[in-house]
Amino acid sequence: MPVWDGATRLFHWLLVVAVAASYGSAWSGVAALHRASGYVILALLLFRLIWGIVGSDTARFAWFLTWPAAALRELAQFRARTPDTQVGHTAACGWMTMILLALLTAQVITGLAGAAVHALVSYVMLGAVALHLVAILAYAVVKRHNLVRPMITGRKRLPAAMQAPRMASPMLALAVALVAAAAAVLIAALR
Predict the structure, then answer these.
(1) 3-state SS assignment for residue 84
(2) d(Cα 69, Cα 5) in Å, to the nearest integer?
(3) From CA 26, how far away is CA 13, in angstroms rounded?
(4) Which of 36, 97, 136, 162 has its CA 20 to 30 A from that of 114?
(5) Contact 15/71 with Cβ under 8 angstroms?
(6) pTM score
(7) Of 94, 101, 99, which is closest to residue 57 (Cα–Cα)?
(8) 92: confidence class by pLDDT, cuts 50, 70, 90
(9) How far apart are CA 23 and CA 41, in angstroms?
(10) 104-120: buried (b, 16+ CB within 10 Å) or exposed (e) per residue?
(11) Distance, CA of 133 to CA of 144 (rounded, Å)
């Protein structure tokens, strides 16, 4: 069953590359690459924020954001090995996604502002990325849920009775990407 559209998957993996380039260039002192990767991250964040409103079901914030109590209940029962019947993010994964997006937004804003807190935010972001990776590993080891394969293929083996999520048009994704890229270029030009 399709669970992740191509635009969401492409966003995810481009973000991985852009964040790695941002950290690598900061540590190696390549300012031009650091600035460029920051603008790419800005464009990707703008895309994701818009896509979280108009995109496919599983990409929409309204689809996966629940009350924090639901995420806490889910984490309290984490050790129980249950079949993977989740379409899109679980409650806890949804909140982790929002935390990562918020931290990336703070990182971009503090970077654009040249704020001293930019370095501090980058360390908090590294911790959140590490937690994200540990969670993926924990889902694989404890629950036997492979979260990586669906983010690569877009598909997941689920019970036939489950309804597939609505997938948004790739043309809509392209339009959103062009708007996000144009906004990032405009912001870069104004700096």
Answers:
(1) coil
(2) 28
(3) 20
(4) 97
(5) no
(6) 0.93
(7) 94
(8) very high
(9) 12
(10) bbbbbebbbeeeeebee
(11) 15
